[in-house]
């Protein structure tokens, strides 16, 4: 009987695996087709529109710039510098934002006072902080990190807060009847329950961190600062090198998409799958 | 020690009384059913005994270590497996870490889920989820077990099986069980005494003892079920009238 069950379950497992592989493939095919179509339209437009190539470069001219920046190492160095700054700043933002969010979730008075301010900060474009940060810290990494943190921290706080707000009230009752103290409730129930909201906040926090970093690097150039991707963009502008500018924009986009596809999307999928919150989960009756 | 309620009243902020001057003595090891129409305050009464709500007036006495609670919708934590849900109850109850796995396996076997420990709640059927919830309630190892319509959402066959298992568990463990339900036949089948609550506010309307002879006699239990159903219908109409008037 058990052998029969094992035999029957193997094809089912294979089918499920194949289904997942197909879904993953489908998820990649649509964006790839979109990119190919957009690049084709761009190329056609660059041929059709009678404007000088240095003012409206086509994808070919932009791609031709790539070997140059790869050969002199400026692109790799800039991407390395920006990624290091973004990851360090993002981790710092997580370390700062998480306890603040927990504090606000448990102190209604503090939330009433600070909550609207944090939401307002989320609306304020990070680039607005750059002049103030340069005046305070000069052309240094402190300026870059300040702008990045001011961009990322509010999103992460709000993400965790909304995750906690959405926890079913019954979980609190469960903690009480199981005899959990406040610390145990936060650790064993509240934080895991808020994880989907927290990850959504981290995702948004990363997007804000990356955007803020670009804004800061674009303006804060020179001094002791290493060249980041944003600074490379500024260099393209100084040299009136539009293919370089377009190439850097594409690189910024690509890094953002790769982090999303390789880190946040799989993490979110796993979280939802583990909780039976995807379309295939759940049994009835 | 059982549970004692002395002239307990409860009202939520800005609303009428939900429970009024309710007194009851529930003996140690007794299986009691609290029967009432929807919205009559049965669950509020259970929440009072569990310490999730405080009475507006009156007092109640429960064992020092409190009461285990089984919720209507299992209330399992979806990121934990069945075994981990039970293990968390043991951990929070101070059960020694090195003995937890063995105890979890025992409890899973007790509720006929020996092979399902690694499954997440969404991979279990409704009946299996309630069995895990029962094992988690038993993991708390408290003399009083409160059950808030735990089988209301299940199909008749699953409910029937769980009734049998619950009766067996009660006989094995000798726990004091307070079982809230709006299902008359369920109350007769499971309990040794039924308290019927009135609607708006909740007071004890009737108390009926259920002997083994009555439970096993289809004619007698059907007659009692009819009688209690008539009372509940009357209370339900009163409840609906109250709702439409307010």
Label this structure with key terms.
heterodimer; A: 285 residues; mainly alpha; 10 helices; 82% helix; flat; disordered N terminus; disordered C terminus; B: 246 residues; alpha/beta; six-stranded mixed beta sheet; three-stranded antiparallel beta sheet; 8 helices; 43% helix; globular
Give a summary of the structure in a few sentences.
The complex is a heterodimer of chains A (285) and B (246). Chain A has helices at 2-48, 59-71, 74-106, 108-123, 130-137, 141-165, 169-178, 182-219, 229-238, 242-274.
What does this 3D model show about the protein?
The complex is a heterodimer of chains A (285) and B (246). Residues 1-6 and 279-285 of chain A have low confidence and may be disordered. In chain A, helix 3 (74-106) packs antiparallel against helix 4 (108-123) and helix 6 packs antiparallel against helix 8 (182-219). Chain A has ten helices and no strands. Chain A is an all-alpha fold and 285 residues long. Chain A has helices spanning 2-48, 59-71, 74-106, 108-123, 130-137, 141-165, 169-178, 182-219, 229-238, 242-274. Chain A is 82% helix and 0% strand. Chain B is of the alpha/beta class and 246 residues long. Helix content of chain B is 43%, strand content 22%. In chain B, the strands form two sheets. Chain B has a six-stranded mixed β-sheet with strand order 5-6-7-3-8-9, with helices on both faces. In chain B, strands 2-1-4 form a three-stranded antiparallel β-sheet, with helices on one face. In chain B, a hairpin with a 6-residue loop joins strand 8 (193-197) and strand 9 (204-209). In chain B, helix 2 crosses helix 3 (97-110), helix 2 (82-92) runs parallel beside helix 4 (126-139) and helix 3 (97-110) packs across helix 4. The longest helix of chain B has 28 residues, at 218-245. Chain B is globular and about 55 Å long. The mean pLDDT of chain B is 89. At the A-B interface, helix 7 and helix 8 of A face strand 5 and helix 2 of B.
């Amino acid at each position: 009987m058990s052998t029969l069950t094992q035999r029957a379950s193997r094809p089912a497992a294979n089918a499920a695996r194949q289904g997942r592989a197909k879904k993953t493939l489908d998820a990649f095919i649509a964006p790839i087709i979109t990119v190919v179509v957009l690049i084709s339209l761009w190329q056609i437009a660059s041929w059709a529109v009678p404007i000088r190539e240095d003012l409206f470069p086509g994808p070919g001219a932009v791609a031709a710039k790539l070997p140059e920046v790869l050969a002199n190492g400026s692109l790799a160095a800039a991407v390395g510098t920006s990624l290091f700054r973004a990851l360090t700043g993002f981790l710092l933002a997580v370390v700062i934002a998480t306890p603040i969010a927990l504090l606000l979730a448990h102190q209604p008075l503090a939330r009433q006072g600070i909550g609207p301010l944090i939401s307002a900060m989320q609306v304020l474009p990070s680039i607005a902080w750059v002049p103030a940060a340069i005046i305070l810290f000069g052309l240094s990494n402190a300026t870059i990190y300040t702008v990045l943190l001011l961009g990322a921290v509010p999103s992460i706080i709000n993400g965790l807060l909304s995750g906690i707000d959405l926890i079913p009230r019954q979980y609190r009752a469960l903690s009480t009847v199981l005899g959990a103290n406040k610390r145990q409730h936060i650790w064993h129930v509240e934080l895991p329950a808020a994880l989907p909201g927290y990850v959504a906040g981290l995702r948004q926090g990363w997007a804000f961190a990356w955007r803020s970093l670009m804004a800061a690097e674009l303006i804060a150039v020179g001094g002791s600062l290493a060249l980041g991707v944003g600074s490379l963009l500024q260099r393209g502008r100084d040299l009136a090198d539009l293919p370089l500018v377009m190439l850097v924009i594409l690189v910024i986009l690509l890094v953002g998409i790769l982090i999303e596809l390789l880190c946040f999307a799989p993490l979110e999928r796993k979280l939802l799958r583990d909780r039976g919150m995807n379309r295939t989960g759940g049994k009835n009756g | 020690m059982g549970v004692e309620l002395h002239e307990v009243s409860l009202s939520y902020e800005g609303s009428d009384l939900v429970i009024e001057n309710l007194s009851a003595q529930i003996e140690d090891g007794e299986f009691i059913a609290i029967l009432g129409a929807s919205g009559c305050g049965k669950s509020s009464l259970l929440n009072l005994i569990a310490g999730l709500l405080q009475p507006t007036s009156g007092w109640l006495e429960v064992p020092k270590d409190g009461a285990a609670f089984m919720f209507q919708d299992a209330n399992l934590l979806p990121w934990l497996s069945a075994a981990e849900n039970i293990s968390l109850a043991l951990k929070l109850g101070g059960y020694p870490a090195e003995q937890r796995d063995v105890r979890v396996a025992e409890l899973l076997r007790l509720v006929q889920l020996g092979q399902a420990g690694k499954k997440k709640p969404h991979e279990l059927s409704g009946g299996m989820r309630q069995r895990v919830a029962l094992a988690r309630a038993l993991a708390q190892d408290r003399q009083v077990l409160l059950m808030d319509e735990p089988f209301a959402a299940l199909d008749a066959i699953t409910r029937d099986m769980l009734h049998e298992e619950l009766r067996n568990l009660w006989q094995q463990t000798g726990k004091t069980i307070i079982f809230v339900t709006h299902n008359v036949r369920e109350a007769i089948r499971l309990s040794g005494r039924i308290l019927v609550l009135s609607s708006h506010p909740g007071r004890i309307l009737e108390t009926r003892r259920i002997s083994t002879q009555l439970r096993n006699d289809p004619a007698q239990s059907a007659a009692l079920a009819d009688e209690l159903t008539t009372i509940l219908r009357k209370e339900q109409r009163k409840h609906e009238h109250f709702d439409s008037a307010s």
